[in-house]
TrEMBL record:
<dbReference type="InterPro" id="IPR055268">
    <property type="entry name" value="PCB-like"/>
</dbReference>
<dbReference type="GO" id="GO:0005737">
    <property type="term" value="C:cytoplasm"/>
</dbReference>
<dbReference type="GO" id="GO:0006094">
    <property type="term" value="P:gluconeogenesis"/>
</dbReference>
<dbReference type="GO" id="GO:0004736">
    <property type="term" value="F:pyruvate carboxylase activity"/>
</dbReference>
<protein>
    <submittedName>
        <fullName>HMGL-like protein</fullName>
    </submittedName>
</protein>
<dbReference type="Pfam" id="PF02436">
    <property type="entry name" value="PYC_OADA"/>
</dbReference>
<feature type="domain" description="Pyruvate carboxyltransferase">
    <location>
        <begin position="1"/>
        <end position="85"/>
    </location>
</feature>
<dbReference type="InterPro" id="IPR013785">
    <property type="entry name" value="Aldolase_TIM"/>
</dbReference>
<dbReference type="InterPro" id="IPR000891">
    <property type="entry name" value="PYR_CT"/>
</dbReference>
<dbReference type="InterPro" id="IPR003379">
    <property type="entry name" value="Carboxylase_cons_dom"/>
</dbReference>
<dbReference type="Pfam" id="PF00682">
    <property type="entry name" value="HMGL-like"/>
</dbReference>
Length: 269
């Protein structure tokens, strides 16, 4: 996000809604610290940072630097940068150890081209790791240019989980194996309509290359799923949870094993 765009967005939100505004952005383009300062001027309540050993690149601005920049400002934080220094020193060693153990690239350069390609920072570091694993790190610049092409061809899905990973995996396979020679199942599901209607039409040429004559979903995909709430509630009751509220039923639906372990530990069943 650009600095003045952040200022206008935060100003507008603060004027319209009473809830705290939290801003999260990545350093990939080199503008994140400037963006945070303009957002702070506009009245943002929270900015997401990272301790300096884990900051910058595709991460977030450094906590210590933001704290220092606000000293003497009306929006001063209750953090002391001096208290953060020994913590940062400790985690510098942790970072070095992890980088050596897992062969991680911890020096990802700023690339202002992401402002044009609109690729989230977290995606870039993951994709670079995947390309290195395949011995094709030299194809990384071409991958960055392939992603906006793929995104346009499959209907401009938003670059948030899970559709950001779908765009990234389709682009990576295109660069490694040839355009749409191998198409992951999730990419096919998106083209088929299983994730709902995309913001823009999907290229018919690309859809044909992916799916051939497979049936396209033109209705609301969730309508194909039978109602499950009562069945899930009954399962919880059978497991000894006599009156589960809807929040716990939803937790059980999403993470059954983890939820049950928590319910048992909390004495709910």
């Amino acid at each position: 996000m650009a600095p003045y765009a952040a200022y206008e967005l935060v100003k507008t939100l603060k004027a319209e809604i009473p809830v705290p505004i939290q801003l999260h952005t990545h350093y990939t383009s080199g503008m994140a610290s400037m963006t945070y300062l303009k957002a702070i001027e506009a009245g943002v309540d929270i900015v997401d940072c990272a301790l300096s050993p884990f900051a910058l690149g595709t991460s977030r601005p450094a906590t210590e630097a933001i704290v220092a920049s606000l000293e003497g400002h009306a929006c001063i934080t209750d953090l002391r940068k001096e208290a953060l220094y020994p913590i940062a020193d400790y985690f510098r060693g942790v970072k070095k150890e992890l980088a050596g153990t897992f062969k991680l690239n911890t020096a990802i350069d700023i690339d202002t081209k992401v402002l044009t390609f609109q690729i989230p920072g977290g995606m870039l570091s993951n994709l670079l790791s995947q390309m290195k694993e395949q011995g094709m790190a030299d194809k990384y610049p071409e991958l960055i240019e392939e992603m906006p092409r793929v995104r346009a061809e499959i209907g401009y899905p938003p670059l948030v989980t899970p559709t950001s990973q779908i765009v990234g995996s389709a682009s990576a396979f295109n660069e490694m194996l040839g355009r749409y020679k191998i198409v992951p199942r999730e990419v096919k599901d998106l083209a088929r309509g299983k994730y709902g209607r995309t913001p823009a039409p999907i290229s018919e040429e690309v859809r044909q290359a992916m799916l051939g004559n497979e049936t396209i979903i033109t209705h609301r995909p969730a309508d194909d799923i039978a109602p499950q709430m009562e069945a899930l509630r009954a399962q919880l009751i059978d497991k000894g949870y006599t009156s589960p509220p809807i929040e716990d039923v939803l937790s059980y639906a999403l993470f059954p094993e983890v939820a049950m372990a928590y319910f048992q530990k909390a004495g709910r069943c």
